[in-house]
Amino acid sequence: MATRTDAQTRDWIEDYRAYHRLTPIDPAQLEDLIDYIGDTGREPTQYVTGLFDQHDIVFLGHRTPTLQTGLFLQDLILALHSAGIWAVGIEWACVDDQPLLDALLRGPAFDEALARGALFRWGLRHHFAYEEYLNVLRAAWTANQRRDAKAPHFRVVALDYDIDIEAVTDTADLRSPWAWPHLRPYGSAARHMADVILREFVDPGQKALILTRTEHALTRLRRTPHPVVDQIDCELSDGKAVGAANHVFSAIADRAATVLIQQSIPADGTQGEYAFPADGLLDAAFAHDAGPKYPVGFDIDNTALGQLPCSSSLDRGVLSDWAQGWVFLHHLDRAIAPTPIDDVVNDSNLEQARRWVLDSHLRRSDVTAADFNTAIATSAALAELDWAHLA
Q: Does the chain have fewer CB atoms within 10 Å around its N or its C terminus?
């Protein structure tokens, strides 16, 4: 994919700000941001692992899977192991498949078929089947191979649960809001995932990294519901969308922290569905001729960065409402699509895939395995178009 030069990115951001009736970027403010990130920023894996000095649970959130993010997560797993953090919770697996994860991580060899099976239920639901994210499990297996004999086994804990597909008909459109009270018999995904985190990590006093989508990674911010993103499978409380980290934060306060990977955030749809974090100032700092180097992680709380407005986002507010820390891997227009897993759906699991998938057109009896694999490839390609929503 062709990407913009830094000069083109700067022009793009200024056009974005003008379109949203925001003032031009203040050069002095931009210089202060560049100095702060350059002086305090750390290599991203070191930054995230360092947060465990002050926090027990660290949520790491991102909205769209990308190749760069998947590779970063693999490196982070091995860095956690080296730092003495032995547990990771992942949204993209169901507790129903926890035995598969446990067998995978303790096996004498990495069993890719077993790994695929552990990710299949959730992956079908969200068209989420990518090599880079499967290899997060490979990194966890590698961590166990490298561990000292007296050290604990590295654990990957599934957080979500399988929806009750038997509660609806074979032809039901599961992207309609009416279906979800029937599909979630044990309550919301947010509440369930929080309960797993509290039971598996907090109650035993174990530190853990939690890998989720942005909407479940936010500790303090209770989001304004988005008309598209929050149509289905969303917990609402007092008119706000509530995620897993909100529930955990209610239980343990700032022993839990949020770090977000730099991606777009929801907007209200009147001028696009998604917005730049900090109205583009973060990207502008890194696109500056003297800008800081990335990838890099840095603090948001109690800094000038934290007070940057997000006035073009759905929730408005400031950047520190979203997270305590930030990881900048690349500019928004430089995302690379993750690599779809080959033949994730085949003749052996096609009937199961038709039953579990949400898209009504993929639930038909005439749909083939190739149709599923095309849908997953299309979902992967959308990562590279993420920036187009901001134009």
A: C
